[in-house]
Amino acid sequence: MHQGIMKAWLESSHLSGANSTYVEEMYEAYQVDPDSVAADWRVVFDNLPPVNGASAEVPEAAHSKVRDYFRSVALAGRLKGAGSVSDPELDSKQVKVLQLINAHRFRGHQNANLDPLGLWKREAVSELDPKFHDFNDEDMQREFNTGSFALGGQTMKLSDIVKALKSTYCGSIGAEYMHITDTDEKRWIQQRLEPTLGKANYDKDTKRRILEGLNAAEGMEKYLGAKFPGAKRFSLEGGDALVPMMREIIYRAGSAGTKEIVVGMAHRGRLNLLVNVLGKRPAELFDEFAGKHTDRDGSGDVKYHQGFSSEFVTPGGNVHLALAFNPSHLEIVNPVVIGSVRARQDRLNCKNGLRVMPITIHGDSAITGQGIVQETFNMSQTRGFKVGGSIRIVVNNQVGFTTSNAADVRSTEYCTDIAKMVQAPIFHVNADDPEAVAFIAQLAVDYRNEFKRDVVIDLVCYRRHGHNEADEPSATQPLMYAKIKKHPTPRKIYADKLIAENSIAEEDVTGLINHYRDALDHGDCVVKEWRPMSERPVDWSPYIGKDWDAPYDPTMPIARLQNLANKLVSVPESHKLQSRVAKICGDREAMAKGDKPLDWGFAETLAYASILEDKRRVRITGQDSGRGTFFHRHAVLHNQNDGSTYMPLRNIADEQGPIDITDSVLSEASVLAFEYGYATAEPGGLTIWEAQFGDFVNCAQVVIDQFLSSGEQKWGRLCGLTMLLPHGYEGQGPEHSSARLERFLQLCANHNMQVCVPSTPAQVYHMLRRQVVRPMRRPLVVMSPKSLLRHPLAVSSLEELAEGSFQNIIGEIDSLDSSKVDRVVFCSGKVYFELLEKRRKENLTNIAILRVEQLYPFPHEEMVAALNEYQHVTDFVWCQEEPQNQGAWYSSQHHFWSAIPGTAKLTYAGREASAAPACGYPSLHAEQQESLVNSALKLS
Questions:
Q1: Can you tell me the distance from the alpha carbon of 722 to that of 689, in angstroms, rounded to the nearest whole number?
Q2: Based on the domain organization, do 793 and 827 belong to the same domain?
Q3: Any idea what the CATH number is for the domain that residue 331 is in?
Q4: Cross-strand bridge partners of residue 755
Q5: If exposure means fewest CB atoms within 10 Å of the residue's CB, which of 180, 277, 545, 897 is most exposed?
Q6: How far apart are CA 402 and CA 477, in angstroms?
Q7: Residues with Cβ within 8 Å of residue 574, at least 6 apart in sequence
Q8: Res 293: pLDDT
Q9: Distance between terminal CA atoms of the chain?
């Protein structure tokens, strides 16, 4: 404290005795929440001198010495409306009023009326009771300052304050936001909730619109239940308010300037939203229920996995709606949606996220039970993955699949507590109060647009039927379903309310029901806001129907390539590089001049530069993608003096495509799903996800199985995502050797993806360019190298890049007399160079070595051409580093059998079958490696 000030004002202070206790209590309330005290008090506290090093970042701890300070400061004229300083008892009561207000802001949601069924057994929160704060009946009639509550600075009877608090925080809305540290965000929410006492004030037209949404939701389910009894539809009944909620979100977003909304959700209510929000024709859905489908290639998918696109007219213009296709792995669609949104925002150059908005719809058990939710929340504010916030809706039917007890599915009070990790506000709302639902829907859109952060709506409802319509829920939830059978539907409750308040006539309610049923019978779109799409945001037409043989020109004038090389090695003199990085850049200067052959990192970077010069986008993410896990890429150069970065790839032309290289969060599943979503919305460029080690991709197996390998077969969704998976046996153990090549090959069918194992810098250059230049979009899986990044034999010339093309098969490179060859070895990847060096060392001239650079789709024609001069050979060998039950052997040997002469035999050279991908001992690794190479080359 400032002792001089204290001494100067000691005699003039009125703040002594009980008054100082009052000030101290108010000060401590201010430290918890500055908005909990009146504005004039806040000015006083804001201007207090810091104590013991306290600052805005490190707040001062609450302590009783504050009363000493106030004894030294004359405040009598600055404490207007805060209670009379001459009445210590009343002053103390005033502080308790502020504490009561704060208690409702913090814990009012725990006593809110959230459960439509009234089954929740929740203990009363003592802090919300005026008696807890020592208020008596006489106090209830006294007037107190409301601090920042409601309109702020008002004087009201305590009974009216309590009534207002209960209405705002303990009604149909339970607001959790006091965990947010940003004062502006908390104040914003308070200013939206408190002046209206948590109530919406809608006109008759809006109320009718809400009722129409409920009518459609209920009418759709009843119609399906009657027409297709027992068929799975994952009914929305009980959570009907989701339909008017979604409609209000779209209206609000469109009015604010949003042009696209991407939605991700699982099964519950999906068919209802498809028809009643996105505008899918009911006749099409009924045909799906009846087992009809249009002739098309692929397997198709069940109706509650299907996506859809449409346009929805709002006062602010048309909004393009896209419901993402998704599998039964529930929450995995969330990062896919976010990735698609980011791609759309990038294309529109939308930096604030306003023009494209994501909505993800969750189940109550899934949001808290599946780790991908945490991973996606964690990405929400990171540089490479943020989208200006998401609206996350939980359809909380209080059961979660078939579990009968919340204690079995989570360890927290609410299923939404996971959102607190990113300080997202959470609004619990009773689904039987559709006006409260609409109010929160609008508030959520406004919050998201204002603060560019996630916001969560917990729609507390119930599930009228079992998990699916063939399930019997009363077997595990007898009490809940006894109550549900007697509980009126949300439409009935709201219609009765509107009739009672003369907002709508009873005959009009009946008319709405009949009109909607007639519309379903007719089979046409039932969404009056639906509009045909004038143009699709993403144009896939250049890539539809194109296969692997789609023609393209892989060559490039060498002068152009030379110019790109020069640009890539140009670094500002002021940008001081780390010594090892400077050495790599110096080597690249020599490569650009032609004094050294090109290594892997430089050829790869030249591929990106050539794509960018064609004005196409490049996006690369991975846990070390800027420098490369193995210190080889160095596309992002860090200044050793000030930490700034320089990216040569952003400086290759005056007009070029954009490039983003982002070191990602430490996750595989969410990041790969994000990049899949990005690539499905950005077909023209190159989108790459790189694993730190290829082995780590197994953490994203769901993404690979459900999206990458089967998305086209199930949903007709093309995707050109490239995956770089470092793969190779260098004695680094079971988790740093194998990218699980066998798993990808097992998933290969119907030309669904490419699996390549490039072995030279020229090959990686042409492979990456081919992925963009060729008008065909399917995933590319690359077993990329580790030790080959600096292998003296794994080099290429600038001419090979400019004049060559990707070779699916690379034949024998040494000058062998083919007539004397009596064994041909097939292989892929790093082991080729070990075979080559050993053969040269042993002067073996009777064994030819062929590299298979693309394992799928298998290049039969190229293989036939490569084997043309070895038709006399009867001894063929497949050599691999991986154990026999892994790698390419089991999945690819039928291709080799079909290529070799009919009288020839095919044998295996490699490690024995193993449960682990690799051994963990360097000496054993070396022994095994030497053995497999010797076996392939017929050495003892």
A1: 6
A2: no
A3: 3.40.50.970
A4: 781, 856
A5: 545
A6: 9
A7: 639
A8: 66
A9: 87
Is residue 101 one of the residues assigned to a domain? yes
- For 915, the domain range is 809-936
Cα–Cα distance measured from residue 893 to residue 692, given in angstroms and rounded to the nearest whole number:
29
Would you state the pLDDT for residue 405? 72
Residue 60 phi/psi, 5-degree rounding, is: -70, 135
Copy the structure tokens of residue 495: 């219609």
Contacts of 512 (CB under 8 A, 6+ apart): 211, 212, 215
Domain boundary (193, 213, 233) is at 193
Q: Residue 734: is the preceding peptide bond cis (ω within 30°)?
A: no
Question: Where are any strands of DSSP class E within 647-784?
Answer: 659-663, 686-690, 722-726, 754-756, 780-784
How far is the C-alpha of 296 from the C-alpha of 213, rounded, in Å?
Answer: 34
Token pair 């969704």 is found at 717
Q: What is the pLDDT of residue 295?
A: 55
Q: What are phi and psi of 245, to 5 degrees?
A: -60, -50
Element containing residue 430 per DSSP (H, E): strand 426-430
**3-state class (DSSP) for residue 195:** coil
Same domain, 112 and 218: no
Report pTM: 0.90
CA dist., res. 670 & res. 305, Å (int): 20
DSSP conformation class of 149: S
User: What token pair was written down for 67?
Assistant: 């009363």
Q: Answer whether residue 146 is part of any domain.
A: yes
Q: How many domains does the chain have?
A: 4
Domain harbouring 925, CATH code: 3.40.50.11610
- Sequence letter at residue 151: L
Q: Within this chain, do residues 183 and 303 fall inside the same structural domain, yes or no?
A: no
User: Strand, coil or helix: what is 851?
Assistant: strand
CA pair distance 674, 342, nearest whole angstrom: 9
Same domain, 635 and 768: yes
CB burial readout 898-925, b (16+ within 10 A) else e: ebbeeebebebbbbeeeeebbbeeeeeb
Residues 797 and 813 both lie in one domain? no
Q: Which residues pair with 688 in a beta bridge?
A: 620, 722
Q: Supply 927's token pair.
A: 């022994």
Same domain, 797 and 867: no
How many whole angstroms from its chain centre is CA 3? 55
**Coil, helix or strand for 677?**
helix
Looking at 348-411, list the stretches that DSSP marks H as alpha helix, in order from N- to C-terminal side.
364-369, 371-379
Q: DSSP for 113-125, please give it.
A: ---TT--------
What is the rounded CA–CA span in Å between residue 101 and residue 539?
Answer: 54
Q: Going from the first residue of the chain to its last (940 residues), give the mean pLDDT of each consecutive group of 10, the final group possibly shorter.
A: 38 42 65 69 70 47 42 35 54 92 97 95 94 95 91 86 96 98 96 94 96 97 90 90 98 97 92 94 87 67 74 95 89 96 96 97 92 95 96 93 75 95 98 98 98 98 85 86 94 97 96 96 94 85 90 94 96 94 94 94 97 97 93 94 96 96 94 97 96 93 95 92 96 94 96 97 98 96 96 96 97 96 97 97 97 97 96 97 97 95 96 95 95 94
Give the orientation angle of helix 922-936 with respect to helix 831-842, to 10 degrees. 60
Task: Write down the pLDDT at residue 38.
Answer: 66
Inside any domain, residue 600: yes
- Residue 667 token pair: 């996750």
Residue 430 confidence (pLDDT): 98
- Tokens 């409920």 appear where? 214
**Percent of residues in the chain assigned helix, strand, coil, to nearest 5:** 45, 15, 40
Contact 364, 396 (CB under 8 A): yes
The answer on 80 and 186 residing in a single domain is: yes
Q: Which of 797, 880, 761 is nearest to 832 (CA)?
A: 880
Q: Which tokens hold the place of 909?
A: 């050279």
Q: Are residues 309 and 407 in the same domain?
A: yes
Answer whether residue 685 is part of any domain: yes
pLDDT value of residue 403 = 67
Read off the CATH number of the domain in which 571 is found.
3.40.50.12470
Q: Identify the domain boundary among 780, 803, 826.
A: 803
C-alpha 611/C-alpha 616 separation (Å) is 6
Backbone phi and psi for residue 831, each to the nearest 5 degrees, phi listed first: -60, -20
